[in-house]
């Protein structure tokens, strides 16, 4: 393991340099004091469940032991406005929690989510939520993957989007596209448009394993044109009830 | 000293390249099934996972000896690796070739045979 250290350090420095570069270009200004205060909160209250430094699990044992989603690429994944509001009023994103297989039980017809094992997420004050969101937006591992994506502006009709997501590609098996429609083992996507950055969605769909090698979302080898359609569809999903 | 450092760096680089390749560590088929298949095929392999309610085509019951016995090992391997479409079945059965390595995929076929208590061509 010690052999890895110099290399990892070197990678870390390179990553940080890229992160700083991208941050300077893209992110709205956030005060340096807020970022470090936010980091303080993350380190005190959040590291017990969230990985803030990477890498993602590379064994099933580590995957099963993960208590909350990895946040070390949060700045490439989330919209800051979503983070600020969700951290104050967290609503469930993964219907079966993390790790899903620890939160299910056999039901009368099929397996069901064992609600008794799922706890509500801690909530932050508005002030702390802003600081934490500022800090999370600086965590930008895998910026190289983001740089490869180009989501052209565009729209797709709800009907066509739903068809691509469901009938053509079978994404509906694991993801909900309305509060009571779709699968349960993946995060709900009916708020994807307000939660996620478009380039992240494109990159994750292209290769979930590039982000999270052991994740239970398969690589379906979705082609570029379909990825564009999917992202346009998901961008339009900002909550609400229509499937 | 500098030479030694370079050798170490190179070794570390190689470790990183091969250590993170998916060929490196094979998990048991039972653990892979729990992680990747149970979400649709069920904790008991009976085709009744948490995801099934809204699926147009239901996941196969892997404990059904009659059906599973009618499928060849080759069919099962192709379905697991390349997905339902590769054997003219539903797109809802995903491809796992980027998640499991060949050794794990072959072990998975053997595990499916255990679940159904059946062999290729026999029930």
Supply database-style keywords:
heterodimer, A: two-stranded antiparallel ribbon, two-stranded antiparallel sheet, 12 helices, disordered N terminus, B: 123 residues, mainly alpha, 0% strand
Provide a quick synopsis of the model.
With 243 residues, chain A is mainly α. Helix content of chain A is 46%, strand content 4%.
Describe the structure in your own words.
- The complex is a heterodimer of chains A (243) and B (123).
- By secondary structure, chain A is mainly α.
- Chain A has helices spanning 5-26, 32-46, 60-65, 74-77, 80-88, 126-136, 143-147, 158-168, 192-195, 198-206, 208-211, 224-235; strands at 104-105, 112-113, 176-178, 181-182.
- In chain A, a hairpin with a 2-residue loop joins strand 3 (176-178) and strand 4.
- The relative contact order of chain A is 0.14.
- Chain B is mainly α and 123 residues long.
- Chain B has one domain (2-116): Cytochrome c-like domain (Cytochrome Bc1 Complex, Chain D, domain 2, Orthogonal Bundle).
- Chain B is 50% helix and 0% strand.
- In chain B, helix 2 packs across helix 5 (102-116) and helix 4 crosses helix 5.
- The interface between A and B is large, with 42 and 43 residues.
The CATH homology group name of chain B = Cytochrome c-like domain
Largest sheet of chain A: 2 strands, antiparallel
- N- to C-terminal distance of chain B: 66 Å
Major sheet characteristics of chain B? none
Average pLDDT over all residues of chain B: 86
Q: Give the helix/strand class of chain B.
A: mainly alpha
Which value, in Å, is the CA radius of gyration of chain B?
19 Å
Structurally, the number of domains of chain B stands at 1
Q: What is the string of SSEs of chain A from the N terminus onward?
A: HHHHHEEHHHEEHHHH
Task: Report the strand count of chain A.
Answer: 4
Number of strands of chain B: 0
Oligomer: heterodimer
Using the alpha-carbon principal axes, give the shape of chain A: globular
Residue share in helix of chain B: 40-55%
